[in-house]
Design a protein that fits this description.
Largest sheet: 2 strands, antiparallel
Radius of gyration: 18 Å
Number of strands: 2
Strand order of the largest sheet: 1-2
Strand content: under 5%
Shape: elongated
Structural class: mainly alpha
Order of helices and strands: HHEEH
Number of domains: 1
Oligomer: single chain
Distance between the termini: 46 Å
């Protein structure tokens, strides 16, 4: 499977997880897109530096070709998948903890041992 195909599969997979598995509907919220716009700016900045200075190079036959700020569009797809999955997972875990707490199933948490 090519890098481009994997990027598309990652996006589709994350959308399925967000909308059908976790049902957080993260991608339907305005705040998600505002937050994601901020993330994209920094992703393009770092991707632009890494690819523009040839720290990271791509085989031209392995990507679609279009680039934004030196970064292949596939990198933006993977970035979207990574950020969306992280935020949706966080929201799903938080929702589950809040539901347990409302039902009186909250457990006592231990203090952090990293102190």
């Amino acid at each position: 499977m090519t890098y481009s195909a994997l990027a598309v599969v990652a996006v589709v997979g994350v959308l399925v997880v967000d909308l059908a598995v976790y049902r957080t509907r993260m991608v339907t919220r305005r705040i998600f897109w505002v937050t994601y716009a901020i993330v994209v700016v920094f992703q393009l900045l770092m991707n632009g530096v890494l690819t523009g200075l040839d720290v990271v190079t791509y085989d031209a036959g392995a990507i679609w070709g279009p680039r934004i700020a030196y970064a292949p569009v596939e990198d933006l797809l993977f970035g979207f998948a990574m950020v969306t999955l992280t935020l949706a997972s966080w929201a799903a875990v938080n929702r589950r903890a809040n539901t347990a707490r409302r039902r009186g199933l909250d457990t006592v948490t231990r203090r952090s041992s990293t102190r």
